[in-house]
């Protein structure tokens, strides 16, 4: 490295560098969309409750009539990414949370739904720049799904935390 490049690097290291991280706190101006699969709604409704509980306790107005959270219901996990993309492209949201439950059956259908849901959701985030949370529970049995949606823990809470972290992190970077 040349002396000049070294001096520039030092200058930025000492003066202008930053640590970006979400703070879960400045939530009053954040807007979220939740996309929820109806398939296995015994599970997805519980994930939704966990999510709402977390958002509410972090100061977010979860009322659908309010101006912070919108809800979109889709038939199943396969359709989640398309609707998430449409919502993301409106530019209205700081993060989008995708909720679904794919439970293995006797056929390879499970793998197709999981793979497409995961690929689709990842591509929405990368292609739109809007943080998107992969909240699709994928399990071998209904028992395992229930254990992740309220019986032991509720991953819905974690998904909301991920959305809060990513939304506040992106705000930090934009400042
Ligand atoms: N959708 C789910 O969300 N979970 C599942 O477990 C599931 N299984 O097993 O079939 C499922 N299928 C429906 C799929 O998401 C689409 O709605 C359907 O194929 C129509 O496109």
Automatic annotation (TrEMBL):
The keyword Zinc does not apply. Gene3D superfamilies: Lumazine/riboflavin synthase (3.40.50.960). Keywords: Riboflavin biosynthesis, Transferase. The keyword Cytoplasm does not apply. One of its GO terms (biological process) is riboflavin biosynthetic process. CDD domains: Lumazine_synthase-I (cd09209). Its EC number is 2.5.1.78. Transmembrane segments: none annotated. It comes from the Bacteria. Pathway: Cofactor biosynthesis; riboflavin biosynthesis; riboflavin from 2-hydroxy-3-oxobutyl phosphate and 5-amino-6-(D-ribitylamino)uracil: step 1/2. It catalyses: (2S)-2-hydroxy-3-oxobutyl phosphate + 5-amino-6-(D-ribitylamino)uracil = 6,7-dimethyl-8-(1-D-ribityl)lumazine + phosphate + 2 H2O + H(+). 5-amino-6-(D-ribitylamino)uracil binds at residues 39, 77-79, 101-103, 134. GO terms for cellular component: cytosol; riboflavin synthase complex. One of its GO terms (molecular function) is 6,7-dimethyl-8-ribityllumazine synthase activity. (2S)-2-hydroxy-3-oxobutyl phosphate binds at residues 106-107, 148. The active site is at residue 109. Belongs to the DMRL synthase family. Catalyzes the formation of 6,7-dimethyl-8-ribityllumazine by condensation of 5-amino-6-(D-ribitylamino)uracil with 3,4-dihydroxy-2-butanone 4-phosphate. This is the penultimate step in the biosynthesis of riboflavin. This is 6,7-dimethyl-8-ribityllumazine synthase. It comes from Cyanobacterium aponinum (strain PCC 10605). The gene is ribH.
């Amino acid at each position: 490295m040349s002396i000049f490049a070294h001096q520039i690097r030092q200058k930025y290291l000492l003066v202008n560098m930053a640590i970006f991280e979400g703070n879960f706190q400045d939530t009053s101006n954040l807007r979220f969309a939740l996309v929820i699969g109806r398939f296995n709604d015994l599970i997805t409704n519980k994930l939704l409750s966990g999510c709402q509980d977390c958002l509410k306790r972090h100061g977010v107005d979860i009322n659908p009539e309010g101006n912070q959270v919108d809800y979109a219901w889709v038939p199943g996990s396969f359709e989640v990414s398309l609707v998430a993309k449409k919502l993301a492209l409106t530019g209205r949201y700081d993060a989008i949370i995708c909720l679904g439950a794919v439970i293995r059956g006797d056929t390879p259908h499970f793998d197709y739904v999981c793979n497409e849901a995961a690929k689709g959701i990842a591509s929405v985030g990368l292609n739109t720049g809007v943080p998107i949370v992969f909240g699709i529970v994928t399990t071998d049995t209904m028992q395992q799904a229930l254990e992740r949606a309220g019986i032991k823990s509720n991953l819905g809470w974690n998904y909301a935390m991920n959305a809060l972290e990513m939304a506040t992190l992106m705000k930090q970077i934009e400042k």
